[in-house]
Specification:
Blueprint (H helix, E strand, L loop, with lengths): L1 E10 L3 H12 L5 E4 L6 H11 L5 E5 L18 E2 L2 E2 L11 H20 L7 E3 L10 H10 L16 H16 L7 E4 L12 E5 L1 E3 L5 E8 L2 E6 L3 H4 L2 E3 L6
Parallel strand pairs: 1-2, 1-8, 1-12, 2-3, 3-6, 7-8
Antiparallel strand pairs: 4-5, 9-10, 10-11
Helix pairs in contact: 1-2, 3-4
C-alpha cells in the first residue's frame, strides 16, 4: 500500500483558504501545509495552527510572485515588483543580475525567518507558482533553506501528462536537487495526475483547499466571479489504496 504526502499550499494567504486548510487537517484529507510569509492572514494563521494542533506540520511556501514583499531591495527589481507588490511576471528563463540575486536572497531569507520567529519549526519547502524550480532561482532557494536547517524540498512534477522536453528538464532538476543534499519524495503530482492510475509509493500530492460559494471544501483550481472554483477535496485514504505520512517522516 502506497504511503503518500498530501500538502496544502498557500496557508496564510487569506482567511478563507487558511480556514479551509484547517478543516482539511481536521478531516484527515491532508498531511502537511506550506505557509506564505507574505500572506495577508499570516498572524492569524499562526494562531489557527497552534489552536488546532498542526503547528508541527508546516513548511514554507517561498514566494516571488504574489502579495507584498518583506524586504526593500526586491522592490527595486521591476522584473518582480510593481508599485510595491509582486507582479506575477517573473520569467524563469531569463538570467538574473547580481543585484536581483542579492535581492532574492534577502527576500527569501526574510520569509523563512518570519516563520521561524513565529515559533514554527519549518519541516520542508516548496514555492508559490513553483518559483523554486526555476533554473536561476533554484540555487538561491536551496542556499537559503540550507542556511536555516531546512533539508526537505518539493520535487519538480514528474507524474501525469508531460511532454518529452519538459520531462527531461524536470528529471534534470530533480537529480540536481538530490545532489544538493535535499531530501525529497520520489514523485510529485497534482490530483488530476493520479485520478486513473495507481499512486506510486512515496508520492507528494499538491492541493489548494478552499471553500466555494456554497461553503463546500474544494481543491481550488481558480476564481470565478470572485469565488474560488474547483472540485471537491477528496479523502484519498477512503477512495484509494493508500496510507498517509507527513513530511516529518521523510
Amino acid at each position: 500500500m502506497a504511503r503518500i504526502i498530501i500538502n496544502a499550499d498557500d496557508f496564510g494567504l487569506n482567511e478563507h483558504c487558511s480556514r479551509a486548510i484547517a478543516q482539511a487537517f481536521r478531516e484527515g484529507k491532508i498531511t502537511d501545509t506550506t505557509m506564505m510569509s507574505t500572506g495577508e492572514y499570516f498572524d492569524e494563521a499562526v494562531e489557527l495552527a497552534k489552536e488546532q494542533g498542526f503547528i508541527d506540520k508546516i513548511g514554507i511556501h517561498l514566494n516571488l510572485t504574489e502579495g507584498e514583499p518583506l524586504t526593500e531591495d526586491i522592490k527595486c527589481c521591476s522584473r518582480f515588483v510593481t508599485d510595491g507588490r509582486f507582479n506575477k511576471q517573473y520569467d524563469r528563463k531569463k538570467k538574473l543580475t547580481k543585484e536581483e540575486k542579492s535581492a532574492i536572497y534577502k527576500e527569501l531569507t526574510a520569509q523563512v525567518e518570519k516563520i521561524q520567529n513565529a515559533g514554527i519549526t519549518i519541516t520542508h519547502a516548496d514555492s508559490h507558482h513553483h518559483i523554486h524550480t526555476g533554473i536561476f532561482v533554484a540555487p538561491i532557494a536551496v542556499k537559503v533553506c540550507k542556511e536555516h536547517w531546512i533539508n526537505k524540498m518539493r520535487l519538480h512534477r514528474n507524474l501525469g501528462q508531460i511532454n518529452a522536453i519538459k520531462r527531461f528538464v524536470k528529471k534534470r532538476y530533480n537529480h540536481w536537487l538530490c545532489k544538493q543534499g535535499m531530501i525529497t519524495t520520489d514523485y510529485f503530482a497534482y490530483i488530476v495526475d493520479i485520478e486513473n492510475v495507481d499512486i506510486p509509493d512515496n508520492t507528494e500530492i499538491m492541493v489548494h483547499p478552499d471553500f466555494d460559494k456554497n461553503g463546500v471544501l474544494i481543491d481550488r483550481h481558480g476564481v470565478e466571479n470572485g469565488f474560488p472554483i474547483g472540485t471537491k477535496l477528496p479523502d484519498l485514504r477512503a477512495e484509494r489504496k493508500v496510507t498517509l505520512k507527513g513530511y516529518a517522516e521523510l
